[in-house]
Design brief:
46% strand; mainly beta; single chain
Length: 282
């Protein structure tokens, strides 16, 4: 596997990721009118190996990270719950009231931010965006559940600065993709603040055609008091299970949440095709 380095900090480790989930109707949360989106549109071209870590966090931890005006959504009620987490809470009902969370990043050859392109197809220069999010719902109506983004991520400072021009707020992180020197396995690492997440392993079985496009809705805080909905649509070509171990290091909120989860579902990985993020200012 080729090695890319993105972001800041010479010794940091990182993780490749992607959002997993099912189609979601945001209902009354939409601010999009007949004239189209009220914010920028991003395109990810040439998706590279990407995946999510889906896990569960305790109510107190979710309350700490969710913004004012939102309440957490229990796993038993969350429409976008990963099937593996659904199976777990069915088998162990004690976790039905824990809160779903996801750490996801996309790799792509090119990320186009509102018309400006970063990266180049076929150049071996990997770009990355992603998020850490918690299942939440607005307290006022309580009918819509969505991913409330705690950290919106990128590995490229130029993408971060371009997003700030539209009042979007990203955190720059470090990503390493390569080969583990001890085992010879693939290695993917991500450092967010004081949290390090490292996967060492390989893709298992055979790759298969991705069954259908995926759709999600994220809620995000922006700069200057703005808030946004981001509508994610992804159409990868291939998907494949992931085999190996996930190492969590650190003592901040994300590390604690991952370590305390009764399940950490990794993948499946998928790649090829593209994705779009359309932002709507609320």
């Amino acid at each position: 596997m080729m090695r890319w380095r993105v972001g800041v900090g010479a010794a940091a480790l990182g993780l490749i990721g992607v959002v997993s989930g099912v189609a979601f109707n945001p209902g009354n949360l939409s601010a999009q009118g007949a004239d189209g989106p009220s914010g920028p549109e991003w395109r990810l071209e040439g998706l590279e190996l990407s995946f999510c870590v889906d896990f569960l966090i305790e109510l107190a931890s979710a309350d700490k990270r969710l913004p004012k005006g939102f309440q957490p959504v229990a796993a038993a009620r969350f429409a976008q719950l990963h099937p593996a987490l659904r199976s777990m809470i069915d088998a162990e009902p004690v976790y039905r009231d824990w809160i779903p969370s996801a750490l996801c990043t996309y790799g792509a050859a090119v990320v186009e931010v509102d018309g400006r392109r970063y990266g180049q197809s076929g150049s071996g220069s990997r770009q990355m965006v992603g998020m850490w999010a918690i299942a939440g719902t607005p307290e006022e109506n309580g009918t819509d559940s969505l991913w409330v983004v705690s950290e919106f991520l990128t590995g490229n400072d130029r993408i971060k600065r371009a997003a700030e021009g539209s009042l979007l707020r990203l955190r720059e992180i470090d990503e390493v993709v390569g080969e583990d020197s001890e085992s010879g396995e693939d290695m993917h690492g991500l450092k967010i603040g004081k949290t390090r997440v490292t996967w060492i392993g390989h893709l298992g079985g055979d790759s298969t055609r991705a069954a259908e496009p995926g759709h999600e809705v994220w809620w995000l805080k922006g700069n200057r008091g703005t808030t946004w909905l981001a509508r994610l649509s992804r159409e990868p070509v291939w998907r494949q299970p992931m085999v190996g171990g996930l190492r969590i290091e650190g003592k901040d909120d994300l590390a604690k949440a991952l370590k305390s989860s009764p399940i950490r579902m990794l993948g499946p990985a998928f790649w090829g095709g593209g994705a779009t993020l359309v932002f709507e200012r609320q």
